[in-house]
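Sequence in, structure out. Go.
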Amino acid sequence: MGHLVRFYQQQQFFALATAYCFCRGFAAEQRQSARYLTLAALAAACLSQELSMVLIPPLVVALLLFAKKQDRGSTLSIATAAACVAVLLVVDILVFQTRCLTKLEESRPT
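Output:
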């Protein structure tokens, strides 16, 4: 749906939501719920517009710089959620590539 409407406003919203939730979850408050919201907003931004995947490397660098160590259970649960988001994004890219590479039959008038 995002590609059919004016998707850049939708993508900007999700990119800003990702940055906001990241700051609350990994830098300022260190809340686990904000960390999950960061992953959800990032997934929505990337599914809205695949170009949003350029947000991932800076977020990883910021995570390494600012995130405090959590207990093992919290770290494992956020890593599992991040892996699920990564699989979702890979499937999205593969489906998109398959759809773009599939040759469509042109119907000719008879």
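Check: The chain has a mean pLDDT of 85. Residues 2 and 43 are 13 Å apart (CA to CA).
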